[in-house]
Amino acid sequence: MQPLKGLTVVTLEHAIAAPFATRQLADLGARVIKIERPGSGDFARGYDERVRGLASHFVWTNRSKESLTLDVKHPQAAALLERLILEKADVVVQNLAPGAAARLGVSHAALSPRKPGLIVCDISGYGDDLEHPGPYRDKKAYDLLIQSEAGFVSITGTPDEPSKAGPSIADIAAGMYAYTNILAALMQRAIDGQGRRIDVSMLEAMSEWMGYPLYYAFDGASPPPRSGASHATIYPYGPFPTGDGKTVMLGLQNEREWASFCDKVLRQPALARDERFASNSKRSAARAELRALIVDAFASLSATEVLGRLDDAQIANAQVNDMHDVWRHPQLAARQRWVEVDTAAGRIPALLPPGTDTRDGGPRMDPVPALGAHTDAILRELGLDAQAIGELRAQGAV
Description:
Number of helices: 17
Strand content: 5-15%
Order of helices and strands: EHEHEHEHHEHHEHHEEHHHHEHHEEHH
Mean pLDDT: 96
Shape: elongated
Structural class: alpha/beta
Number of strands: 11
Distance between the termini: 34 Å
């Protein structure tokens, strides 16, 4: 199913937040034209060379797009960008520095009088509102910095040391809110014909995801403590070592599960009646003592044996997989979630977007574009011939 087929998105994007949002629009069938710097392109192209010489972040967030190289500071290239938006675009997405889009003449304020149905989504670290800019508007905002500002780092890690999340979750959060707001704006435009400006802040997106710890620390209360991979307030809930040197993850939610855990997993049914562990709050307070009992019980068992007991007791559990395990995860394989997409380095596997189904036509899963791969074709759409394109190349405009 590709409900956005026929819609065109023009995007001035780099790194993760905006590319992740627009890739999902492409998944739904939208035509996404990615504006890149001549010669270098999106700087995420140079993050690493892990995918047959291509960058892992770029491969992940840029399939199904068209790459158009324009030096947007060159007058002729800027004029072409303006034409492209006014003649082709339904949506413009950008995550340039605050104020940069306005200086380039591609802000919502500059474009909407000439194209009232245009939707413009601006993504920034702290928000870009001229009426209420806030003191942080112009600060540089990388994923780690936003994880820190939103309080995520303060509750993540071990008691001895805070930690960030492995993936770029602040970028991902902002990209998801950009994506959903664009979909909502398209639905509203179908009703009233009007476009709108969407202002997505990475800080606000990440702070929304921090709702539970924020409310847990409401009115001056203590925030959740850092507890590694264990749950901060529920126990036992987290990783435990097994006798074969592996780790299993398990989680209990109620007293019925606690009794079943003692009986069928630990094989110590009397422990369920031990006053030291008679409620979750008591178990959490005595977690060091209880952990020692659990580790001792698991010391003679393999991970497979522990997982079998947990399944038999209907206790939630998981293996602690590494990336190689996820590539060959049996559930992803059984549900046929892997397909292949083309790149300049050959075909590579890619996950189908969550919620999509190939039986209804499936999402768009087109190639990851080489830098500038679609420049000539798009410029020809705008009426330029080979000579005009050659002259622009000679001037460094494209």
